[in-house]
């Protein structure tokens, strides 16, 4: 009903979904599920009912412009020393999650018959769940996996089941039972990185202008550096480094700004609406049941490893969520969760572990392929 080339109509739908999600989040049910999960579910329903398209140029604008801006905005108060200290604990959970992905991919291949492309599927799923979908295409190309039907089935499973996993994680991220069992050192997650309370005064036009100017400058500089060294996909790494430098050097001055969190959260709501719109339920139904079961086995083992690490190393619920989402969805997903749940101290660890997943994922995928082929 809404054409893919009608940017204003799509934005009207997405902003409307953000408003609905934010409003329902104040209800008793919304507090349990979270507004962003409501936005994803509604966008998925609208897309699969044919109301909005699954892909559109507007979605590219959200991904390429609004997501980096929201990441940069949220990092305005990132204190490097505190982030390193907190990041060390998140890294432990991330490493455990990677081992869980490898073990789950191997176990699933042993338990299930995936046909002639068993090693290839293990490789691409092992890679994509060690840092995000960026690794899927890279490993498929590296191992020569070019069967269009098999690749389409894998992508469908990755998109929909992976999104389902993120929905589940988002639903339990702040559940009382989860927080109670993994509540160590979680009392300061919502504080600014410098330990000061978040400024509650109403934001001014000057505040928002300065915050957006610094965020846009960091995004432009980071992308330019990444392109100059021939690694354009790693622009987020340089954006993070620039914003951390700005936040660390100017932490006393930036303390007076207000409202950047509100803008960052709005942009992230649009991002999750885009994710929901891109999920293809029909493609999932057409995919092989064995492949579906394979990904479920992989996720189950991954969760077991992450929770075990949480128990052994006394990690809190937020660190486990960020580490797991960094594995499964990559840095944009991980930091989106940090933004939406207000875990300010985990912003840099979310990006750092996700970027590490980009690097490690290719080695994981190729290693699984060689081991199983």
TrEMBL record:
<keyword id="KW-0812">Transmembrane</keyword>
<feature type="transmembrane region" description="Helical">
    <location>
        <begin position="61"/>
        <end position="78"/>
    </location>
</feature>
<feature type="transmembrane region" description="Helical">
    <location>
        <begin position="291"/>
        <end position="313"/>
    </location>
</feature>
<dbReference type="Pfam" id="PF05684">
    <property type="entry name" value="DUF819"/>
</dbReference>
<dbReference type="InterPro" id="IPR008537">
    <property type="entry name" value="DUF819"/>
</dbReference>
<feature type="transmembrane region" description="Helical">
    <location>
        <begin position="235"/>
        <end position="254"/>
    </location>
</feature>
<feature type="transmembrane region" description="Helical">
    <location>
        <begin position="266"/>
        <end position="285"/>
    </location>
</feature>
<protein>
    <submittedName>
        <fullName>DUF819 family protein</fullName>
    </submittedName>
</protein>
<keyword id="KW-0472">Membrane</keyword>
<feature type="transmembrane region" description="Helical">
    <location>
        <begin position="160"/>
        <end position="178"/>
    </location>
</feature>
<feature type="transmembrane region" description="Helical">
    <location>
        <begin position="6"/>
        <end position="24"/>
    </location>
</feature>
<keyword id="KW-1133">Transmembrane helix</keyword>
<feature type="transmembrane region" description="Helical">
    <location>
        <begin position="320"/>
        <end position="341"/>
    </location>
</feature>
<feature type="transmembrane region" description="Helical">
    <location>
        <begin position="36"/>
        <end position="55"/>
    </location>
</feature>
<feature type="transmembrane region" description="Helical">
    <location>
        <begin position="347"/>
        <end position="369"/>
    </location>
</feature>
<feature type="transmembrane region" description="Helical">
    <location>
        <begin position="90"/>
        <end position="112"/>
    </location>
</feature>
